[in-house]
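Deliverable D4.2, example record:
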Amino acid sequence: MKLNKSIRTKASVLILFVFCCLFSGMAKANDDNNDNNDNLTIGITQFPSTFHPTINAMMAKTYILAMTRRPVTVYDKDWNLICMLCTKLPTIENGLAVREKTPNGGNGIAVTYTIQPNAIWGDGVPVTSRDIIFSWTVGRHPKSGIGGSEQFQRIYKIDAVDEKTFTLHIDRVTFDYNNIGNFNLLPEHLERIKFKEPEHYRNRTSYDTDTMNEGLYNGPYVIDKIVAGSHVVLVKNPLWWGNPPAFKKITVRVVENTAALEANLISGGIDMIAGEVGLSIDQALAFDKRHKTDFQVLYKSGLIYEHIDLNLDNPILDDVRVRRALVYSIDRSAISKQLFAGRQPVANNSINPLDEMYADNIPVLEYNPKKAAQLLADAGWTTLKQGVRQNTKSDKLILEFMTTAGNRTRELVQQVLQSQWKKQGIEVRIINQPARVFFGETLTERKYTGLGMYAWISSPENVPRTTLHSAEIPSVQNAYSGQNYPGFQNSEMDLLIDTIEIELNKDKRRQLWRRIQEIYIDEVPVIPLFFRANAFILPKWLKGVEPTGHQYPTTLWIENWSH
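Output generated by the structure prediction step:
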């Protein structure tokens, strides 16, 4: 879509001027050197739909909770798996992981962890093996509403060796057997009573009904105040057992409109903009040019995958020819060059070339309008009336297209794609929603009818079970657990996912990964767009922020930030 540059520039200047005027009367959040102020205000673009660590995947929630909780294991900024809540990473080599036979005679593994001895919840109750066992009970219950329950299902038994040591008995030996970063710990002493009726747990959890309860948190900060849709205030956890953080109070302010977010930063309403949930790369590049002397901007590319889910229950999208035509119709290279100065490379599948399991030389679906037109004709969409294709039943080729409202870059990408599809006779109707609705309900319950654009953020060599395995399709029956929002079902993909997890030989895994990528490109359950680079816009005085490039955010190391 060709844009009128003059109109767009004038509109942007006017919007920025208005927001600067609105916020110019606000006191600057921190002075230039921040010597006399121990408060930090962070700007993000989304408000969490829930504060429960395992219900609904949303980066805004992860970003905030990372300051209040500690996972057992985590990938660090160098993409190495390390202990965070545990004392020593179990391995087969150090004897803390031992192969064993499962009750049904299969090959399993027993993995033993010890919780940090001083780790306690914010109300003074120690973090113990009881919390581990309770969290496992919740995670594996079919009606709890927990996402990614497969990781809990494969643990068939947990032994509490003592108050701080536990052994997981896993029903298979996976290549990442000691990675339990997604085993989100819940405080048994608070949540057990909420779990008396598992089918109602997702609506009764203390994380949403009593969010300011210090006992829900075991990190450097606890949540002190929440204004829904506006901001979250965190204060130091007086019972934090690790290195003391520098800031007494952190306010995470939500400004869904990215132009307004930038204006808040300039006026002093916020100190920084989070790279994980903040400005897009094009906005950051423009901002960097204008304010290089006032702020520091860090750029980090990584495992952040912008894409469009296709609801395969839609009869139009059920036809793979239509899905391929949608990809052939769009010029993703032009979008990357024109909107992102080429800094966000085109994604041909979900695996980033930075990941060692990325496969080269796989045929991809590149921009080819002629192929797109032929595929649509082959699928029966042969008649063009008033610019829209129809089939022999006079059905129109119309699809709804949704994303997060207020994200200027996503909305611009939407408009460009809408224009490119229109040239093929595909009518796309844009219907956007606030992020908390889009992620909290529309995607989770598969209420979108056509196209849904957002990003996945993953860890290195992240097996796509929850997003591509047929057992992970959210439904009423599984309390909307799982993240296979397209409803993709492919028996070979299921087998590959099941096999790759238990293949310890890296070269053999690489071949399995290659086939996964081939199916992904060929079957098109998802339209790949590009791999995002995050831009962290920070004040000059802020030190210690180290972007990771994967799903674990910078705030997991908040105690290392200083002024």
